[in-house]
């Protein structure tokens, strides 16, 4: 399914097609979330990716939606879990939308607001990890992993120690990953080939999910709702644009497409606006 929009003599195409169920892989959001709801798999993967030990995991809900206020932009987290002292958000990212650093910043801030309650001390904030698993290199340096913590510019040895970590894994450079288990996971995403006990378990869970008619129905329902959200955002922008003129119309369209989390590259393709113009909206 695709949506073709006519605006006077301008034509744009919105990438709202629903991927066939049978062709889904671990690299697709829905399947990724389903597989990572297996606590044994999720715990083992986090321990390997972050080089930590986890006593247990509690699921704060897969595909968790956080809305803090009516005026703020809500977020939908793929896999949102915690242990005794830490919170983890794992995000599957198929396309480099060019806004990942700011998205990571916003996700982390929303998670913090969601954790701390009115009247509580800031010391109650847990250590947090926002982890993006990217099929494309998010920073173009060819590294398999980019791990960011806050440091002092004047003295790089001084850590801010705010216990907020942003981690980006680059699937396209899986061959450079030193940890064998993580390398096998990244290769599974890239080529679909399991090499270890953990990745074989993941592959089996993918097969189980694809053979489950109930999950198939849920997938189609979720995807249709997301398509409707995107189409509604585009429609609102076009309606406002007709009143404001062609150029202003594309700006309004871009704003509404951003509000329903359409990636910047697609917005640029649909509206003709540059990446820089869209980022400033």
Structural description of this entry:
The chain is 43% helix and 19% strand. The protein is built from 9 helices and 8 strands. A hairpin with a 2-residue loop joins strand 1 and strand 2 (10-14). The longest helix has 32 residues, at 213-244. The protein starts with a strand and ends with a helix.
- The third-level CATH topology of the largest domain is Trna Endonuclease, Chain: A, domain 1
Give the overall shape, derived from the CA principal axes: globular
**In total, how many domains does the architecture comprise?**
2
Note the main sheet: 6 strands, mixed
Low-confidence stretches: 1-16, 68-73
Terminus-to-terminus distance: 28 Å
Count the DSSP helices. 9
- Order the strands across the largest sheet as they lie in space: 3-4-5-6-8-7
What is the share of helical residues?
40-55%
What are the main properties of this structure?
single chain; Trna Endonuclease, Chain: A, domain 1; 2 domains; 6-stranded mixed beta sheet; two-stranded antiparallel sheet; globular
What can be said about this structure in brief?
With 281 residues, the chain is an alpha/beta fold. The chain has helices at 29-35, 39-50, 100-115, 180-191, 197-210, 213-244, 246-259, 264-271, 275-280, and strands spanning 3-7, 10-14, 58-66, 75-82, 86-93, 127-134, 145-148, 164-170.
Question: Strands, helices and their partners?
Answer:
Blueprint (H helix, E strand, L loop, with lengths): L2 E5 L2 E5 L14 H7 L3 H12 L7 E9 L8 E8 L3 E8 L6 H16 L11 E8 L10 E4 L15 E7 L9 H12 L5 H14 L2 H32 L1 H14 L4 H8 L3 H6 L1
Parallel strand pairs: 5-6, 6-8
Antiparallel strand pairs: 1-2, 3-4, 4-5, 7-8
Helix pairs in contact: 1-5, 6-7, 7-8
